[in-house]
Predict the 3D structure of the following.
Amino acid sequence: MTLRIAVIGTGYVGLVSGTCFSDFGHTVICVDKDVAKIARLQRGEVPIFEPGLAALMARNTAAGRLSFTTDLKEAVANAEAVFIAVGTPSRRGDGHADLTYVMAAAAEIGQALNGYAVIVTKSTVPVGTNRQVADAVRAANPAASFDIASNPEFLREGAAIDDFMHPDRVVVGVESERARKVMAELYRPLSLREFPVVYTGLESAEMIKYAANAFLATKITFINEIAALCEKVGADVKAVAKGMGMDGRIGSKFLHAGPGYGGSCFPKDTKALARIGQDHSVPMQIVETVIRVNDSVKQRMVDKIVNLCGGSLQGLTIAVLGVTFKPNTDDMRDAPSLTIIPALLQAGAAVRVTDPQGQHEGAALLGGVSWADDPYQAAEGADLVVLLTEWNEFRGLDLSRLAGGMARARMVDLRNVYDQDELRAAGFTEIAGIGR
């Protein structure tokens, strides 16, 4: 059975989720207040970079299953499921998730409802938010017929479509059998392929999202601390991580040392979970430490760069490869580059950067840098290359060509992409990596 779905918000989560639901055969209307964005989507333009999304969107738009509008009332009026997929950024001053957009959407949905619907919170929200959403809907429309569901997303930027279509699990928090049946129908294509759908209460679903992201952020931060110790004792963090990751209780994912986590989820979700713990007098001491250590890791990367250059960057030209927080996305939110590059500029360096997708966002965020079309142009005449984001484009460089064009062939590889012997053979004379 196909369902009529409204998705409120055409950001990363809303656009990917709405498009994938339409590919399941459901009829989906995506709603946004941004008139210019909706106009672009109606023309078939994708406002974010996500591999495979443009083709999937075009196919389902052409089939009549996917459409875009600014008219929330029209989209919600006949919907059987309404997804809230608006932003929940960190609130200034206290780290709490800002629920302004969620609550505004809830009130508008309440006013627009004219029949039964399941209102599904897809946005990442603190524990207890779904009950607040229900209250907001009832306040806007006391006669509204609806149930609430919590359905947190677990999409990795750069692999979001595959994550949606082949999930480790789908988490659904519901309190009525009617809502459960609607949610089961929404995800029926996944259930038929035996991907697990986990049904819980509302609070448990909300907590699963925060606990999962905080654990992954902790894993990243742990290996970054181990990397710092490896540098002091002569161990190689790549070998250490490999040996650790082969233990089935630990696993190899998220054990890659680097310049710290960033992006749209980990920074804000760890801060929000820490605040939730403080509000309930159950301090999240591990998470609070993770936040603090992750901030210090970025500064340690700056120190590593300065130390390789003899203690001063004044007058040097530095080429930075990659500015997005991870490869295969144009997302710059809380990217390590936003801490590291300004510090290089402040230390007196001229910074030349290149990124396959990062210039559109990065140009406004990284004032004072110059942009190059490719790594070789960026490194021409430079005194140092810093590999900051491990795009595939940077994994197979002609290292001899790169070194040959530099004023001084030095590299700081903050992702441990290259073997140091390989770099030396290509002509790099001074090299620094992470945890070795």
Remarks:
- DSSP finds 18 helices and 14 strands in the chain.
- Residues 202-233 form the longest helix (32 residues).
